Amino acid sequence: MDRLQEEGSGLVHGFLLSTVSSSRPTKTGTTHEPTGLDLAVKLHYLKAVYIYSAETARDLTVLHVKAPFFPVSDQVPWTIGRFMRHDSGRPYILCNDCGTRFVESHCDHTVEEWLRVPDRSIDESLVYHRPIGPELAFSPLVYIQMTRFKCGGLAFGLSWAHIIGDLFSLSHFFNLWTRALANEKIYCPTTSELERGFPNPNSTGKEPSSIKRVDPVGDLWVAPSNNKMTTYSFNVTVHDIQSHFPANGDEFEILSGILWKCIAKARGESEPVMITVIRSDPNGLKPRAVRNSQMISSVRVDFSVADANLEEIVKSIGEATDERFRIDEIAASDDGVSDFIVYGAKLTFVDLSEVDFYEAKIRETSPISVYCNVQGIGDDGAVVVLPAAEGEERVVTVTLPEDEMEKVQWELKKCGLITPLVNGE
């Protein structure tokens, strides 16, 4: 095992790296071929943090935690493989059991102290992240960081290459681990080529607006950015959304409409009139498989969002156009040689309201906090909405260029979304 150099200044320290693989060897020569949609999101990484109380996790050792990842890896061997390239240049995963990187660390706070911070973006320090490349054959696709708090509580931070599956898949993967920890028999189906395809909604043939071509990045899969991005997170209740901002739509659509309007006001003349909406596939597989099936849709309006009423904005979000078929087609057309970004190519809203994060139970106890975000968000920014531990609450995480964030926070306060609804001022 390799010990990383300790900075000595952070609250999370003492990093120790090892590897978790499968409990039985995968058949030699087994490969996993990414779809076009997989390739379109290869520069993005998903981050999730699950925090458990000391009462739930105090006596869990590293061996207890590692052991269930072996049978989970047996079910989804491509998550522990490594990327190679065909002669054409198209990336594929060789299922060679090289493993997931496992990171042990410690935090000088108790769980209670840690959770006192209202801005949950602090949880990003509980996720160990490294991009894929520049040596594809040596780059893990998943990092799992186990952080022990001073009180005995535990945090599990996952950095997950988006190319292998969406946030719904990441949640499913971690839920499988908790079930294996409870000695349950687990099963994760593979998907056929037909199941990995997408319906063609009478495509116009135009390049989908929800993706953006970027200059080739070669074998270091890092999304380019022209701005320094910053992240801010807050909680809001469904009741407060629906009572203070009445509009015909669900809470995600209303929240997205409020934030879109606030960001438009903050940007002034450069207000965004086109956004991307990412939600669960209404026709998703049951039982869930590890794959990219998230609905990626675009919305374009011909009015000023800053001046429009909320009802009009929310209605346009509800009419978003599914672009997965064309994304899949375009990203696969040149064997994955071209590079794209999705999150932040246009201002992006991600709905994780239906993800069963709190089903990840240890000893029949749900995590007391879950955090999610995306690494590699483009310059237009993104908003991620997920359920909080209290069922009627939502965690809203906003990632924007640093020079915009203060203006957007001011607009959120002016409209009443974060004051007094959250901060109580």
Automatic annotation (TrEMBL):
<dbReference type="Pfam" id="PF02458">
    <property type="entry name" value="Transferase"/>
</dbReference>
<protein>
    <submittedName>
        <fullName>Uncharacterized protein</fullName>
    </submittedName>
</protein>
<dbReference type="InterPro" id="IPR023213">
    <property type="entry name" value="CAT-like_dom_sf"/>
</dbReference>
<dbReference type="GO" id="GO:0016747">
    <property type="term" value="F:acyltransferase activity, transferring groups other than amino-acyl groups"/>
</dbReference>
<comment type="similarity">
    <text>Belongs to the plant acyltransferase family.</text>
</comment>
<dbReference type="InterPro" id="IPR050317">
    <property type="entry name" value="Plant_Fungal_Acyltransferase"/>
</dbReference>
